[in-house]
């Protein structure tokens, strides 16, 4: 009799991502380096444009009604993402996604479209991420530096991808927000599993399974919102472009980023003893008949 539950298709795909993680990382480094060498200016224009637009939007903020009309589709997509994080990732995943989303928007606003601050901004983020992954025993610290590395690939891809569904900087900001909140939620969920004594690969796979639906649906809603909100005419060409971008983003998230996360030192936050959850309750003894 088989006591072990057979892995599903999602689990097998995530395990394959971990099995071929070295190939994913080498491809990521190669593509990211190519994007940096050939299109650094285009890559830099994305965060600069997004931060400048965010600052202008906040400066023009007058009331809730006007803000709702200008961002209603994206607001619904973002709210749906957070709800899905709470539903599938639990309290840890939900709050991690919320805090990461606020932190990302705050960092964009702090950048303020200043070109002179851009390199220093990225250097500080990369330096802190490297220090965290080396010395801080937090699950978020383990995920931050791998995310920064894979984020370069996402930025380079969006700068190269021909935008037919809106402005490139807005698409970059939306996808980066989903990615950062998703990675932080995944880190806290994996950290909980490691705290229960699960091995590194098992904890990451469990976290990836819980974050699969939120990331897939939130990215679909966000890209659809941009297609509807920013395209003058929604035709087959734009829909096909959006569909390809959605597939590419999720391949990046669950392929490149997920496999890169596995190189972080997760074992140092793993509990020494494994907690076993008993699913079956003990049967109560039958009452004696009088």
UniProtKB/TrEMBL annotation:
<feature type="transmembrane region" description="Helical">
    <location>
        <begin position="118"/>
        <end position="136"/>
    </location>
</feature>
<feature type="transmembrane region" description="Helical">
    <location>
        <begin position="95"/>
        <end position="112"/>
    </location>
</feature>
<feature type="transmembrane region" description="Helical">
    <location>
        <begin position="20"/>
        <end position="40"/>
    </location>
</feature>
<feature type="transmembrane region" description="Helical">
    <location>
        <begin position="169"/>
        <end position="190"/>
    </location>
</feature>
<keyword id="KW-1133">Transmembrane helix</keyword>
<keyword id="KW-0812">Transmembrane</keyword>
<feature type="transmembrane region" description="Helical">
    <location>
        <begin position="244"/>
        <end position="266"/>
    </location>
</feature>
<keyword id="KW-0472">Membrane</keyword>
<feature type="transmembrane region" description="Helical">
    <location>
        <begin position="70"/>
        <end position="88"/>
    </location>
</feature>
<feature type="transmembrane region" description="Helical">
    <location>
        <begin position="143"/>
        <end position="163"/>
    </location>
</feature>
<protein>
    <submittedName>
        <fullName>Putative membrane protein</fullName>
    </submittedName>
</protein>
<feature type="transmembrane region" description="Helical">
    <location>
        <begin position="211"/>
        <end position="232"/>
    </location>
</feature>
């Amino acid at each position: 009799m088989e006591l072990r539950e057979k892995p599903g298709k999602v689990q097998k795909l995530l395990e394959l991502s971990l099995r071929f993680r070295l190939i994913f990382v080498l491809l990521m480094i190669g593509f990211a380096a190519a994007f940096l060498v050939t299109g650094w200016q285009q890559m830099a224009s994305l965060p600069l444009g997004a931060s400048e637009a965010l600052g202008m939007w906040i400066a023009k903020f007058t009331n809730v009604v006007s803000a709702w009309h200008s961002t209603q589709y994206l607001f619904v997509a973002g709210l749906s993402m957070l709800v899905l994080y709470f539903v599938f990732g639990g309290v840890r995943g939900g709050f991690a996604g919320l805090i990461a989303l606020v932190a990302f928007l705050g960092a964009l606003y702090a950048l303020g479209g200043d070109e002179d601050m851009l390199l220093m901004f990225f250097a500080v983020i990369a330096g802190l991420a490297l220090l965290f992954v080396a010395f801080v025993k937090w699950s978020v610290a383990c995920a931050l530096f791998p995310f920064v590395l894979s984020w370069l690939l996402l930025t380079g891809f969006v700068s190269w991808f021909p935008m037919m569904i809106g402005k490139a900087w807005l698409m970059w900001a939306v996808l980066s927000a989903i990615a950062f909140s998703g990675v932080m939620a995944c880190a806290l969920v994996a950290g909980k599993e490691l705290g229960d004594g699960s091995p590194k690969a098992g904890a990451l796979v469990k976290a990836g399974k819980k974050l699969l639906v939120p990331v897939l649906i939130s990215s679909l809603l966000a890209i659809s919102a941009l297609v509807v909100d920013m395209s003058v005419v929604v035709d087959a060409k734009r829909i096909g472009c959006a569909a390809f971008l959605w597939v590419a983003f999720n391949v990046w998230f669950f392929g490149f980023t997920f496999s890169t996360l596995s190189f972080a030192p997760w074992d140092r936050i793993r509990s020494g003893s494994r907690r076993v959850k008993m699913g079956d309750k003990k049967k109560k003894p039958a009452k004696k008949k009088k």
